[in-house]
Amino acid sequence: MPQSRCKILVVLPLLLIAGCDTSRIDKLEKENHEILSRLQRQETVQDFDLRAKCAVAAKAYFLDTKEDYRRPPSHGLPVAQILEEIGYSDHYNKSLNKCLVRIQFYVLINGAVTNSVNVDDVHDRVNFASFYAQNAPPTVCNVQEVNCTSLAEFENMLKPFMAD
Questions:
Q1: If we measure between CA atoms, which residue out of 93, 160, 88, 85 comes closest to residue 123?
Q2: Domain ranges in the chain?
Q3: What is the pLDDT at residue 75?
């Protein structure tokens, strides 16, 4: 019997300590939840800030390169007549950490209407995707150096990069 009492005397304080730790664990879990909430809010603010910076950078890029888009890809041809105002949209891709600008317009070159879409990486100043077609199939159609054969395919390939 004395050994049973010793076991009880050892186990009883452990149970009491475990009971006290439950409130401590609850408190730590609550603190952890609050910290995670704060981090989430900070990440949201940071995302918003990056998107806003991307919008400013994309506009500057567009204004800086707008005249370049009046020339068709094959050099030597005259400045194209713009049928529709050159327009752009920006997108910050979080997973790639890239600011992309999509520039699209229609031009009249030698009597033929040409649809032109360029998506550029604003900060690296490199082309990300291009579509250029007077007729089907397009003259140029690629997204990240992967070729495509139509505007629909181009848009489908581009969609994941412009939706993230």
A1: 93
A2: 1-164
A3: 44
